[in-house]
Amino acid sequence: MDKKASERWALDRVRELLNILPGADIQNNEERPDFIVRVDGRTIGIEVTVWHELPSPGHLPAQAVEGSQDAVVSAAGRLYQQEGHPPVYCTVMMGNTHVKNFDRKAFALALKNLVVKNIPTMGSSIHIVPGLDKDAGVLRTVAGVFIDRYPFMNDYHFHAPGGTWVGAINDKDIQRILDPKDKLCREVYRMRCDEVWLLIVSDIGKNPSTWFEHNAEWPATTFKTAFDRVFMLRQFHGLATELKVEKTN
Fold first, then answer.
1. Which of the residue ranges 20-34, 46-60, 191-205 would you say has the lowest mean pLDDT?
2. Architecture per CATH, 3-53+165-247
3. 17, exposed or middle or buried, with CB in 10 Å at 0-12, 13-18, 19+?
Protein backbone atom coordinates (compact mmCIF):
# COMPACT_ATOMS: atom_id res chain seq x y z
CA MET A 1 0.00 0.00 0.00
CA ASP A 2 1.56 3.31 -1.06
CA LYS A 3 1.60 6.49 1.05
CA LYS A 4 -1.52 8.06 -0.43
CA ALA A 5 -3.49 4.81 -0.14
CA SER A 6 -2.38 4.47 3.51
CA GLU A 7 -3.48 8.03 4.24
CA ARG A 8 -6.86 7.43 2.63
CA TRP A 9 -7.30 4.20 4.59
CA ALA A 10 -6.59 6.08 7.84
CA LEU A 11 -9.04 8.84 6.95
CA ASP A 12 -11.78 6.36 6.07
CA ARG A 13 -11.13 4.49 9.32
CA VAL A 14 -11.60 7.66 11.37
CA ARG A 15 -14.78 8.47 9.44
CA GLU A 16 -16.08 5.01 10.30
CA LEU A 17 -15.09 5.08 13.97
CA LEU A 18 -16.36 8.61 14.69
CA ASN A 19 -19.22 8.64 12.16
CA ILE A 20 -18.06 11.84 10.46
CA LEU A 21 -18.42 12.90 6.81
CA PRO A 22 -20.76 10.01 5.90
CA GLY A 23 -21.13 9.71 2.14
CA ALA A 24 -18.84 12.69 1.55
CA ASP A 25 -17.12 13.28 -1.80
CA ILE A 26 -13.44 13.01 -0.82
CA GLN A 27 -10.83 13.79 -3.45
CA ASN A 28 -7.12 13.11 -3.38
CA ASN A 29 -5.23 16.38 -3.61
CA GLU A 30 -2.02 16.52 -5.65
CA GLU A 31 -0.95 19.46 -3.50
CA ARG A 32 -1.38 19.95 0.21
CA PRO A 33 -3.50 19.38 2.20
CA ASP A 34 -3.76 15.68 1.36
CA PHE A 35 -7.52 15.51 0.77
CA ILE A 36 -10.29 17.88 -0.26
CA VAL A 37 -13.88 17.36 0.90
CA ARG A 38 -16.83 19.40 -0.34
CA VAL A 39 -19.78 19.55 2.05
CA ASP A 40 -22.78 21.91 1.80
CA GLY A 41 -20.93 24.37 -0.38
CA ARG A 42 -17.87 24.46 1.87
CA THR A 43 -14.43 23.05 1.19
CA ILE A 44 -12.68 21.11 3.94
CA GLY A 45 -8.98 20.31 3.60
CA ILE A 46 -7.63 17.33 5.54
CA GLU A 47 -3.93 16.85 6.20
CA VAL A 48 -2.71 13.43 7.39
CA THR A 49 0.51 13.05 9.35
CA VAL A 50 2.18 10.07 11.03
CA TRP A 51 3.54 10.42 14.54
CA HIS A 52 7.10 9.10 14.86
CA GLU A 53 9.32 8.95 17.90
CA LEU A 54 11.82 11.80 18.13
CA PRO A 55 15.41 10.83 17.23
CA SER A 56 18.06 10.69 19.93
CA PRO A 57 20.78 13.36 19.61
CA GLY A 58 23.22 12.40 16.86
CA HIS A 59 20.96 9.68 15.44
CA LEU A 60 18.83 9.51 12.30
CA PRO A 61 15.04 9.56 12.68
CA ALA A 62 13.69 6.03 13.11
CA GLN A 63 11.42 6.42 10.08
CA ALA A 64 14.49 7.08 7.90
CA VAL A 65 16.08 3.83 9.10
CA GLU A 66 12.84 1.88 8.63
CA GLY A 67 12.36 3.37 5.18
CA SER A 68 15.86 2.45 4.01
CA GLN A 69 15.47 -1.12 5.27
CA ASP A 70 12.05 -1.57 3.65
CA ALA A 71 13.42 -0.22 0.36
CA VAL A 72 16.40 -2.54 0.04
CA VAL A 73 14.67 -5.68 1.30
CA SER A 74 11.69 -5.09 -1.00
CA ALA A 75 14.08 -4.52 -3.91
CA ALA A 76 15.82 -7.81 -3.13
CA GLY A 77 12.43 -9.54 -3.13
CA ARG A 78 11.57 -8.11 -6.54
CA LEU A 79 14.89 -9.30 -7.99
CA TYR A 80 14.25 -12.74 -6.51
CA GLN A 81 10.77 -12.91 -8.04
CA GLN A 82 11.93 -11.68 -11.44
CA GLU A 83 14.37 -14.58 -11.67
CA GLY A 84 11.55 -17.08 -11.10
CA HIS A 85 12.79 -18.73 -7.91
CA PRO A 86 10.43 -20.76 -5.71
CA PRO A 87 8.27 -18.93 -3.12
CA VAL A 88 9.98 -18.29 0.20
CA TYR A 89 9.36 -16.17 3.26
CA CYS A 90 12.52 -14.16 3.99
CA THR A 91 12.98 -12.21 7.22
CA VAL A 92 16.01 -9.90 7.40
CA MET A 93 17.13 -8.72 10.85
CA MET A 94 18.88 -5.37 10.38
CA GLY A 95 18.65 -3.69 13.78
CA ASN A 96 19.32 0.04 13.45
CA THR A 97 21.24 -0.26 10.18
CA HIS A 98 20.56 2.60 7.77
CA VAL A 99 21.35 1.73 4.16
CA LYS A 100 22.50 4.83 2.28
CA ASN A 101 21.11 5.51 -1.18
CA PHE A 102 24.34 4.76 -3.02
CA ASP A 103 24.58 1.34 -1.30
CA ARG A 104 21.02 0.19 -1.89
CA LYS A 105 21.40 -1.42 -5.32
CA ALA A 106 24.45 -3.43 -4.23
CA PHE A 107 22.76 -4.37 -0.94
CA ALA A 108 19.58 -5.60 -2.66
CA LEU A 109 21.58 -7.63 -5.17
CA ALA A 110 23.78 -9.18 -2.47
CA LEU A 111 20.75 -10.08 -0.36
CA LYS A 112 18.98 -11.66 -3.33
CA ASN A 113 22.08 -13.69 -4.17
CA LEU A 114 22.39 -14.84 -0.56
CA VAL A 115 18.79 -16.10 -0.54
CA VAL A 116 19.14 -17.80 -3.93
CA LYS A 117 22.27 -19.57 -2.69
CA ASN A 118 20.43 -20.80 0.42
CA ILE A 119 16.93 -21.72 -0.75
CA PRO A 120 15.77 -24.36 1.76
CA THR A 121 14.44 -27.73 0.75
CA MET A 122 10.65 -27.93 0.81
CA GLY A 123 9.23 -27.98 4.32
CA SER A 124 12.28 -26.48 6.03
CA SER A 125 13.95 -23.25 7.15
CA ILE A 126 17.46 -21.84 7.13
CA HIS A 127 19.02 -19.24 9.43
CA ILE A 128 22.08 -17.36 8.16
CA VAL A 129 24.27 -14.84 10.01
CA PRO A 130 26.00 -12.86 7.22
CA GLY A 131 28.08 -10.84 9.66
CA LEU A 132 30.06 -13.97 10.60
CA ASP A 133 31.29 -14.32 7.02
CA LYS A 134 34.50 -12.38 6.33
CA ASP A 135 33.29 -11.97 2.73
CA ALA A 136 29.87 -10.60 3.69
CA GLY A 137 30.60 -7.20 2.12
CA VAL A 138 27.60 -4.86 2.24
CA LEU A 139 25.67 -7.46 4.27
CA ARG A 140 28.15 -7.39 7.16
CA THR A 141 25.77 -5.36 9.37
CA VAL A 142 22.87 -7.81 8.92
CA ALA A 143 22.30 -9.70 12.16
CA GLY A 144 20.43 -12.58 10.60
CA VAL A 145 18.46 -13.82 7.60
CA PHE A 146 15.68 -16.38 8.11
CA ILE A 147 14.43 -18.19 4.99
CA ASP A 148 11.32 -20.39 5.18
CA ARG A 149 9.92 -22.63 2.43
CA TYR A 150 6.70 -24.59 2.97
CA PRO A 151 4.03 -26.12 0.70
CA PHE A 152 1.34 -23.57 1.64
CA MET A 153 3.45 -20.67 0.30
CA ASN A 154 2.34 -19.59 -3.15
CA ASP A 155 4.21 -16.27 -3.30
CA TYR A 156 7.44 -14.76 -2.04
CA HIS A 157 7.63 -12.34 0.90
CA PHE A 158 10.74 -10.38 1.95
CA HIS A 159 10.56 -8.09 4.96
CA ALA A 160 12.70 -6.39 7.60
CA PRO A 161 10.95 -6.34 11.00
CA GLY A 162 11.86 -3.58 13.42
CA GLY A 163 11.66 -2.94 17.13
CA THR A 164 11.83 -0.07 19.58
CA TRP A 165 11.21 0.93 23.17
CA VAL A 166 7.61 2.08 23.37
CA GLY A 167 7.43 5.53 24.93
CA ALA A 168 4.42 7.54 26.07
CA ILE A 169 2.67 10.40 24.27
CA ASN A 170 1.82 13.36 26.48
CA ASP A 171 0.16 16.70 25.80
CA LYS A 172 3.49 18.43 25.13
CA ASP A 173 4.33 15.85 22.46
CA ILE A 174 1.05 16.48 20.68
CA GLN A 175 1.50 20.24 20.85
CA ARG A 176 4.95 19.71 19.34
CA ILE A 177 3.27 17.98 16.36
CA LEU A 178 0.81 20.83 15.93
CA ASP A 179 3.12 23.84 16.22
CA PRO A 180 5.26 23.31 13.06
CA LYS A 181 2.13 22.63 10.98
CA ASP A 182 0.30 25.78 12.04
CA LYS A 183 2.32 27.97 9.66
CA LEU A 184 1.39 25.76 6.69
CA CYS A 185 -2.21 25.72 7.85
CA ARG A 186 -2.43 29.52 7.93
CA GLU A 187 -0.35 30.36 4.87
CA VAL A 188 -1.15 27.49 2.47
CA TYR A 189 -4.11 25.32 3.43
CA ARG A 190 -6.46 28.20 4.31
CA MET A 191 -5.85 29.80 0.92
CA ARG A 192 -7.55 26.75 -0.61
CA CYS A 193 -10.07 25.66 2.02
CA ASP A 194 -12.81 27.04 4.26
CA GLU A 195 -11.87 24.61 7.04
CA VAL A 196 -8.69 22.61 7.69
CA TRP A 197 -8.54 19.39 9.69
CA LEU A 198 -5.50 17.42 10.85
CA LEU A 199 -5.38 13.64 11.32
CA ILE A 200 -2.48 12.25 13.39
CA VAL A 201 -1.87 8.51 12.90
CA SER A 202 0.06 6.28 15.32
CA ASP A 203 0.52 2.57 16.09
CA ILE A 204 1.09 1.48 12.49
CA GLY A 205 1.75 -2.26 12.53
CA LYS A 206 4.97 -2.50 10.50
CA ASN A 207 6.55 0.75 11.76
CA PRO A 208 7.75 0.46 15.39
CA SER A 209 8.71 4.15 15.48
CA THR A 210 4.98 4.98 15.40
CA TRP A 211 4.06 2.97 18.52
CA PHE A 212 3.38 4.74 21.81
CA GLU A 213 1.64 4.41 25.11
CA HIS A 214 -1.24 6.88 25.32
CA ASN A 215 -1.76 8.38 28.76
CA ALA A 216 -5.04 9.55 30.24
CA GLU A 217 -4.16 13.25 30.33
CA TRP A 218 -4.01 14.49 26.75
CA PRO A 219 -7.62 13.60 25.73
CA ALA A 220 -8.75 16.16 28.35
CA THR A 221 -6.21 18.81 27.27
CA THR A 222 -7.18 21.75 25.05
CA PHE A 223 -4.53 22.31 22.37
CA LYS A 224 -3.82 25.62 20.67
CA THR A 225 -3.67 25.29 16.91
CA ALA A 226 -4.62 26.89 13.61
CA PHE A 227 -6.51 23.73 12.59
CA ASP A 228 -10.29 23.71 12.97
CA ARG A 229 -10.41 20.07 14.07
CA VAL A 230 -7.72 17.56 15.06
CA PHE A 231 -8.10 13.78 15.23
CA MET A 232 -5.85 10.99 16.53
CA LEU A 233 -6.05 7.46 15.09
CA ARG A 234 -4.38 4.53 16.84
CA GLN A 235 -4.35 2.33 13.77
CA PHE A 236 -3.52 -1.06 15.27
CA HIS A 237 -5.94 -0.62 18.18
CA GLY A 238 -8.78 0.71 16.03
CA LEU A 239 -9.32 3.73 18.27
CA ALA A 240 -10.03 7.29 17.13
CA THR A 241 -10.29 10.46 19.23
CA GLU A 242 -11.11 14.06 18.39
CA LEU A 243 -8.85 16.37 20.35
CA LYS A 244 -10.10 19.52 22.05
CA VAL A 245 -8.69 22.58 20.30
CA GLU A 246 -8.57 26.35 20.83
CA LYS A 247 -8.22 27.89 17.42
CA THR A 248 -5.45 30.47 16.98
CA ASN A 249 -5.14 33.09 14.26
1. 46-60
2. 3-Layer(aba) Sandwich (3.40)
3. middle
